[in-house]
Structure formats: structure tokens, C-alpha cells
């Protein structure tokens, strides 16, 4: 179905805590998708194709997706972040997402590199 039309001035701007405690928790526990967050495998597309797959088409330069984390090895803990044309590389330090003084999640910054690791070319695409 086509994405919903949002009224002028509408902005989807949840805090990190709201994303984890409201949207992600409902998605995982009850299987309830959000009309604001599209279920998209972000590793199957070049990042330039992701905006068109967003549930929100407001013209903003940020998009929200729910994507399963694939493992690099079947019994391992390392995430596989490779795409057909490149890879998402973690940069910086992970940050805790806290609610009422308790950690409820972690926030990681990933930068898209075109090509194969470790010689891929860094791009301006960033994922949080």
C-alpha cells in the first residue's frame, strides 16, 4: 500500500528512550508494526535507496526502519553488516539509552563504506 499522507508540519521525532520503550518494545513483544517505522532489511539495499522505502515521506533527512540483525557466523555474536556494494562500519563509542537511571538499550553509530572491507571508501551515509 502507498505510504500515508501526513499533515503539513507533522514531524516524527521520538527520543531514543521512546524508540526503545514504546516502538521497539511493542514491535518485539506483540509483533505490532508502527505506521511510522517501516520493516526493511537495511542490508539488502544501498543506503541511497532507503529513503524511498521509509514509512514517512515528509522530506526530512532522517528515516526510521526496523531491521533484523544478522549474525556473521551462525553461533557467533558478531553482527554481519555487509551489503551487496559495501558495508556499515561501527564508529565511535556505543552510548547507553537510559530511562529512570536504568540502561534500556545501546546506541551505535555506523558509517557506510562503499567496496569491500577493509579498503572500502567512506561515504556520508550514517546510521544510528
UniProtKB/TrEMBL annotation:
Gene3D superfamilies, sorted: NAC domain
Coiled-coil blocks: none
Localization terms from the record: Membrane; Nucleus
Domain NAC residue range list: 6-128
Membrane topology: Single-pass membrane protein
Source organism per UniProt: Triticum aestivum
GO cellular component, one term: nucleus
GO biological process: regulation of DNA-templated transcription
Taxonomic placement: Eukaryota, Viridiplantae, Streptophyta, Embryophyta, Tracheophyta
Xref: InterPro entries: NAC-dom, NAC_dom_sf
The protein's name in its UniProt record: NAC domain-containing protein 51
GO molecular function, one term: transcription cis-regulatory region binding
Record keywords: Activator, DNA-binding, Membrane, Nucleus, Transcription, Transcription regulation, Transmembrane, Transmembrane helix
Keyword set includes Transmembrane helix: yes
Amino acid at each position: 500500500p502507498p505510504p500515508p499522507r501526513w499533515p503539513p508540519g507533522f514531524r516524527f521525532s521520538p527520543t531514543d528512550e521512546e524508540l526503545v520503550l514504546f516502538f521497539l518494545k511493542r514491535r518485539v513483544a506483540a509483533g505490532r508494526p508502527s505506521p511510522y517505522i517501516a520493516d526493511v532489511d537495511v542490508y539488502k539495499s544501498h543506503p541511497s535507496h532507503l529513503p524511498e522505502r521509509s514509512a514517512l515521506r515528509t522530506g526530512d533527512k532522517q528515516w526510521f526502519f526496523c531491521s533484523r540483525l544478522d549474525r556473521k557466523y551462525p553461533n557467533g555474536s558478531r553482527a554481519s553488516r555487509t551489503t551487496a556494494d559495501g558495508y556499515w562500519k561501527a564508529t565511535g563509542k556505543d552510548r547507553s539509552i537510559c530511562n529512570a537511571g536504568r540502561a534500556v538499550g545501546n546506541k551505535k553509530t555506523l558509517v557506510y563504506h562503499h567496496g569491500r572491507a577493509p579498503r572500502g571508501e567512506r561515504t556520508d551515509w550514517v546510521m544510528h
